[in-house]
Amino acid sequence: MKHLSKAVLVVAALTLAACTDPSRLGGGYGGAGANGAAGGLNDPSNPISPAYFQQTIGDRVLFAVDQSTLSDGARATLAGQAGWLAENPEYDALIEGHADEQGTREYNLALGARRANAVQEYLTSRGVAPNRLSVVSFGKERPIEVCSNESCYERNRRAVTVISAGGLGS
Amino acid sequence: MTLLKRLTSVLVMALAINAVAFTLQAQERTGPLRIEITEGVIEPLPFAVPDFVAENRAANDMARQIAEVVASDLSGTGLFRRIGSDAFISNITSFDSPVQYADWRAINAQALITGSVNVTAGGRVTVKFRLFDVFAGSEMGGGLQLGGTTTSWRRLAHKVADTVYSRITGEGPYFDSRVVFVSETGPKSDRRKRLAIMDYDGANPQFLTDSSSLVLAPRFSPTGDRILYTSYESGFPRIFVMNVGNVSRRALDDQQGAMSFAPRFGPDGNTVVYSLSTGGNTDIYKLNLQSGERTRLTSAPSIETAPSFSPDGRQIVFESDRSGTQQLYTMPANGGEPRRISFGTGRYGTPVWSPRGDMIAFTKQNQGRFHIGVMRTDGSEERLLTASFLDEGPSWSPNGRVIMFMRETSGAGGAPALYSVDVSGRNLRRVNTNTAASDPSWSPLLP
Predict the structure, then answer these.
(1) Does residue B71 sit in the same domain as residue B119?
(2) Among residues 91-130 of chain A, which lie with CB inside 8 Å of chain B?
(3) What is the pTM of this model?
(4) How many structural domains is chain B composed of?
(5) Yes or no, beta carbons of A113 and B191 under 8 Å apart
(6) What is the tens place of the pLDDT at every residue in B259-297?
(7) Which residues constitute the signal peptide according to the record (chain B) (predicted)?
(8) Is B206 helix (H, G, I), strand (E, B) or coil?
């Protein structure tokens, strides 16, 4: 299945389809709709649903200005993510690293990569197979909050774990 | 994509331009009419550009439009001030008639530019022009004749203005050039970005990509024929190289699990420096486009990115946070010990070596403000040229005298726009674009 999802990505890139932007997954329930089992998987009260992962476990951790160190709270969230991934091996995860707008474009891409990597390393240390995790940095390109002060910035300095179908073969 | 076809034909036409001198005794005369743009210019130099003389009916509109573009180019530098035609005492009705210097002195026109335009039924345009030093009572340099097509008439006008600018300032020309940039639409939280290209003054904008994938930071090749940029079309940031003529593109490097970005051409047009992120660490690499050989230039756990070659190809300037914050460093082009060159307060990023080799432009972040600045290549003589909520990403004009950059406004409705500023810090101007725009890259002077 790992190979399948990669093949799908490649095809999508070749055809320049409109939905190749993975940030779209970040706002929703990952690839849950893609495996045809709708309903229950979008139900946040269903513990095996990506919706539950996103809303109850918590799909994101936040960072201090210009830092990629995980706080105690972030580690607790990620421990929950690792537990969920252990119980739901049919899913993979894409970790998106983001930065706030206070910084230059290239530096923020590198900073987002650091943040995504910090999450990946922590999840791996909690037993998640490395081949179920991939990372991407969006730098400052995809803020979720649009004001220009710390109340928004602190929510934009984030790493989001986006659940996607796959993983049965790993 | 019909835009692709249109773009190709525009480019083919543009290449048909040629220039020939028709006055053999053309000499570079450096009389009293001269602007030293390294020194403080208090008063812009007054000049007159009467409508060019239409040599035939088909040239009527173009004769006026070319004079307008010439005037706009010169006025846009902030070094020249146009005298309106309502002040004129003389009119220019024939390109070869003697100039009535007294009439132009009376309105204090220090420079006078006259010209003529001929348009054939086949769409060939011929422009002739002369530059006069009014107070010296003589022609300045020889007259020139330029040939092109009706679709490339703006380039003819830019070439006229470039010649005038160079003769009076002694600097290299830059008006006949283009800018590739990122066109932005949509809300801040879901911005759609497309690569676009335009003349340096915002005319003739064309899209190079659609908005299906996030694209960032295009960079021209040294000859202007190709563009490097970063695209998320695979879902991950990856560098592509695009042929400007036919808009074909290919991925530059294909390493599993890696993210690549911040590419720039070396002066040979065959070497690319860029950043690669693996395992959360970002370092600088060099790629030979022909052989595909890749060389790692930095190996540090810190962030190393935004590399830019010196014009002689011997050195690379880049940013690194190895000291704890973003600072600028130079290193030999084959790697080796970096030398820190930025020591002021705040953070320094996006360094770009001047095409003249004498300066490095950068973005500086200090106390919640962003600046575009320049420094000598050893870090001395730092000067900040701008200040705002977010100024970022300088790009040099072909002659190394003007810097274009992105300025973004704050808040939910914030959006980026392109600005230019003289290397002296004067003449801050917004560049016309149809949409919000970021990440400008200035082409070399067109052939």
Answers:
(1) yes
(2) 101-107, 109-111, 113-114, 116-118, 120-121
(3) 0.87
(4) 2
(5) no
(6) 999 999 999 999 999 999 999 999 999 999 999 999 999
(7) 1-21
(8) strand
